[in-house]
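Continuing the batch. This is chain 6 of the set; chains 1 through 5 are on the previous pages. Same settings as before, nothing changed between runs. Recording input and output for traceability.
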Amino acid sequence: MATTTRVLRARSAVAVLMLSALSLVCPGWCDTAIAQDSTEIVRVEEEWELVVSVPDPNSVGPQVTCVISPVGHTESLHAAFEINYQSLPEFVPGGLQLQLWSCEHPLASRKFPIGSVMQQPGETVRWKQCLKLADGVLTFEILGGTSATWGSFGGQGYLKASVPTALGNLNGYNPAVSVNNSGVSYAANRVQSLVLRKVRLVTSAGEVLEAEPQYSVYPKQ
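Output for chain 6:
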């Protein structure tokens, strides 16, 4: 079946879809874009961008965490992506780590093999946070990452973890959960911006829905 793409531009349809207090959709995302034709979402991609002004390798700053969940909260299964530090099973400076959590309980962690600490002024880091549901298995993965500190990351399997799930679709996904639970956990003064640039949903029928919220997690809009 051919894949079709429906791009929802930020100042038209996206403005309607993303009507929460954070200028991102809460229930409206699914109600307007998905539920009208009982579409089932089976894949979610978030495109993120981090711009660091002047990092401090001595204090390991900044430290950034971005969250994604298949449902509309973090009180069950969700993932956290840590940048420039790793907190499981104990703190390690530098590197990249993908963690799976059930509420406040850690389930698993995966790290990228290059554990360098940020030290280049003006560095930009870009990556995708992906959720995929297939055959009763939910996969969290970082894809398409680029940076000066760690080079190309994501897609090699290092930052990927799968768990069995009873979820039948990913229609409960809400970008506001990602925005509310992501941010700069340390040395925010060394960050120029952290932005959720694009959200892409793929349905079981192969249709692609794209929104470009350009939502600034840091500094807050």
